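User: Fold this, then the next.

Assistant: Folding the first:
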Amino acid sequence: METQAEFAVSPRAAARIAEIVAAQPAAAALRVSVLAGGCSGFQYRFELDTQRQPDDLVIERDGARVLVDPASLDLLGGGELDYTDELMGSHFAVRNPNATSACGCGTSFAIE
C-alpha cells in the first residue's frame, strides 16, 4: 500500500531500513515517533515494530516500510527521514522543517 505522506523517506533511509528488517525476521517496519523529553523539549525515537496500529501512517519506499503515529506526524509534517553514513558514525536523521532549534546530539529538537 503506497501512501503519499506529509513525511518522506529518502532512498538511503529506505535502503538501510530494508537491510535491517531483512536481518530481523520478526520486524516488519521502522517506527519513527516523537517523544516529550530530550535536551530541547522533544526527541526522535526509532525502533523496529512488528505491528501496525490502525491509525498509523504507513510509508512504503523501495521495499522498506515506515510507521508514524498521528501525534508524531503533527510534529514531523513536511519532514524527511534520511540515513547518514559518516566517519562520526551511521544513524537515521530527520530533516524537520517544524524544528526551530536542535540539540548537538541530533535527536532532540524544539518547536515554537
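Now the next one, as you asked:
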Amino acid sequence: MKSAWSESLKEEVIKLRKEGLSYGVLSKKFKIAKSTLHYWLSEIEYKKEKTAQSRKNWIKNIQPLGALANHQKRLDKLKGIEKRTVKEVNKNNHITKAKKALLAMLYWAEGAKGRKDILSFANTDPQLAKLFICLLRESYFLDERKFRVRIHLHDYHDENEAKTFWSNLLGIPLSQFGKTYWKKGTNKIYRRNKAGICFVRYNSLALKEEVMFYARNVADSLTQETTK
C-alpha cells in the first residue's frame, strides 16, 4: 500500500463519495484500504443521508402544500361541474334535460351513497334497474369497461340463471360481474324476488358528483318555481 496519496486523488475520492459511491466501491476502484477511506471521509455526508434528510424536509414542508393544492384543484373541479350542470338544467333542450333530470332524481332517491368514488345503484326491480342504466347511457358518454355488477342472492336462487338474467337485461358481460353475495336468513323472507338484488356500479367519482349536482340543481329550480 502506498504511504502517501496525491491531493488530486483525495479530491476525486471525496467527490465520488459525495455523489453516493460506497466505501467498498471506492476501495476497489482506487486500491485504497477502507481504513484510509474512513480517515479521509469521516466528515463527508453521504448522498443517501442527504436524500433521506431531503425527504424528511419534503414531507415536513412541501407535502402539505401539495395536499393543499390538490384540495384546491378538487374544489375548482367541483365548481366547474356545478356551473356546467346549472347551465344544463336551464338550457332549452327539453328531451336531454328531461332524461338527465329523471336519471338524477332516480339516483338521488335510490342510488347507493356509501362509496365516495363510484356511482352505484341497487334494486330488486329489474325494470327500475333497466331504466337507470338506459338513462345513464343516453345521458353521458361512458366507458363500458368501468361497469361492475354484483348480485345478492338467497339460497332459493340459481346463481347462473340470476347472473345471465341481469347480464342480458343490463347489457353488461358476465366477465364484469363480481363474486355473488349469499344472504342468510332465508326462512324469514316473506316475499321472494326474481333474481336477487342487483348492484350496478360505474367507477367514476366525477360522474357521480355530476349526477348529484344535477339532481340538486333540478330540485332548486323546481322548488323556486313553486314558491314564486
